[in-house]
Amino acid sequence: MISKDEWKDTLVEINTQVNRGTRYVLDRYLHDHWKAADGVGDCEDYAIEKRPKLIAAGIPASSMRYAFVENKGEPRIVLIVRTDDGDRVLDMNTDTIYPANKTAFKWLSIQSRWNPRKWLKVEN
Questions:
Q1: Nearest to residue 43, comparing CAs of 16, 67, 17?
Q2: Which residue has the higher pLDDT, 27 or 72?
Q3: pLDDT tens digit sequence for 105-119
Q4: pLDDT digits (tens, 9 = 90+) for 88-103
Q5: What is the CA radius of gyration of the chain?
Q6: DSSP 3-state assignment of 56?
Q7: Exposure winner among 35, 85, 104, 119, fewest CB in 10 A?
């Protein structure tokens, strides 16, 4: 968990940098390819691109998880960062960092804090 004073500028800066520096391209394969965006990608690629940049900026890896959400009928992956002021959402569609409990998302599943290979169903 990170403190509000530590996270605000860093999260906004990196979220904005990746969002504006990445061109949205939907995977055209039968199976989705999870990789860092590196300039182009779809929702999970944006989220994956943000994580190592945040770690390099000093945000602990243990404070981050991916979540599978639905917004206006569209499913996507977002990056969640746990702060002392609540969980924050880094989304490819906005440079604003929202509290997780203030989004219009339907929460579907989230990575386990203890085992990143395990995804937990979210009860809305």
A1: 67
A2: 72
A3: 999 999 998 888 899
A4: 999 999 999 999 999 9
A5: 14
A6: helix
A7: 104
**pTM for the complete prediction?**
0.87
Q: Which residues contact 92 (CB under 8 A, 6 or more apart)?
A: 18, 19, 22, 24, 43, 46, 47, 76, 78
Chain mean pLDDT for the chain? 88
Determine the Cα–Cα distance for residues 121 and 111; give it in Å rounded to an integer: 9
CA angle 112/79/83 to nearest 5° reads: 80
Six-digit token string for 79: 């990056």
Residue 121 backbone phi and psi in degrees, to 5: -70, 140
- Alpha carbon distance 87, 79 (integer Å): 10
Query: Using 50, 70 and 90 to split pLDDT, how confident is the model at 36?
Result: low
Beta-carbon count within 10 A of 90 CB = 26
Tell me if residue 9 falls in helix, strand or coil: helix
Q: Is 36 helix (H, G, I), strand (E, B) or coil?
A: coil
Return the structure tokens found at 54: 């945040």
